[in-house]
Specification:
Distance between the termini: 39 Å
Number of domains: 2
Number of strands: 6
GO cellular component, one term: nucleus
Number of helices: 11
CATH class of the largest domain: Mainly Alpha
CATH superfamily of the largest domain: MAGE homology domain, winged helix WH1 motif
InterPro entries: MAGE (IPR037445), MAGE_WH1 (IPR041898), MAGE_WH2 (IPR041899), MHD_dom (IPR002190)
GO biological process, one term: negative regulation of transcription by RNA polymerase II
Radius of gyration: 19 Å
Helix content: 40-55%
Protein name: Melanoma-associated antigen 10-like
Largest sheet: 3 strands, antiparallel
Strand order of the largest sheet: 1-3-2
């Protein structure tokens, strides 16, 4: 992954974390030490490009490797630091850090929810698009297996992803939804009869049914909403 691309990731993520909430500070139990809190935030932000690079290389990783990228004085906060980029990687990029050899604390980075598509062209550095794909599948499921285009963009706008505005991770979101995801058979859409102006409703495509489950996407949606999956009682029952 190029230095320019890595730099863009750092800048964008840093800006996103500038408005971090008081709750985030409380979660870190560091709200009474602003300097330390910000130092650990910066450590967490700096890990995202490193993890992305590991994903791109399809290389395994270990806690020891990650510790080398954390300031010595902050290494005893390892778990707190890693939690932040781990969640960011999963929700934004759709990439999960999976432990493969527990005794050695070795892990790999793989697409979450069973999905195999990341939208990165072969042998070229780029941003995984699977985060947006999985979120679209979530929206379709919670909307009763059909979701209008308007509903999808309304949810994605909470991540500042808009249909006709280029996004530094997902590129051209409308093209991604209407063309790429459809071409890859993860989603399908059709016009609502007699709609004027034209309204499209989206549904899961055959590849989505082959690779993932409603239970997996509900778990992902719960993380996005920061709640337990069981809070969505009817959906949780349907997903079992």
């Amino acid at each position: 992954m190029s230095e320019g691309l890595l730099g863009e990731v750092v800048r964008e993520i840093h800006e996103e974390h500038q408005g971090c909430s008081d709750q985030a500070r409380e979660d870190l139990c560091l709200h009474d030490n602003e300097i330390l809190y910000m130092a650990l935030q910066n450590e967490a932000i700096a890990l995202v490009p490193y993890l992305l690079h590991k994903y791109w290389l399809k290389a395994s990783d270990s806690d020891r490797d990650i510790l080398k990228h954390i300031t010595v004085g902050h290494q005893h906060y390892f778990t707190l630091i890693l939690d932040k980029p781990s969640l960011f990687m999963e929700l934004v990029f759709g990439i999960d850090i999976k432990e493969v050899v527990p005794i050695l604390h070795t892990h790999v980075l793989a697409i979450t929810a069973g999905i195999t598509y990341d939208g990165i062209l072969s042998n070229m550095p780029g941003m995984p698009k699977s985060g947006m794909l999985i979120l679209v599948l979530c929206i379709i499921f919670i909307e009763g297996d059909y979701a209008t285009e308007k509903t999808i963009w309304k949810v994605l706008s909470k991540m500042e992803v808009y249909p006709d505005r280029k996004y530094f991770i997902y590129g051209k979101p409308r093209k991604l939804l209407m063309e790429d995801f459809v071409w890859e058979q993860y989603v399908a859409y059709k016009q609502v009869p007699c709609s004027d102006p034209i309204v499209y409703k989206f549904m899961w495509g055959p590849r989505a049914y082959e690779e993932t489950t409603k239970r997996k996407v509900l778990k992902h949606w719960a993380k996005f909403r920061e709640v337990d999956p069981r809070c969505f009682a009817s959906l949780y029952k349907e997903a079992l």
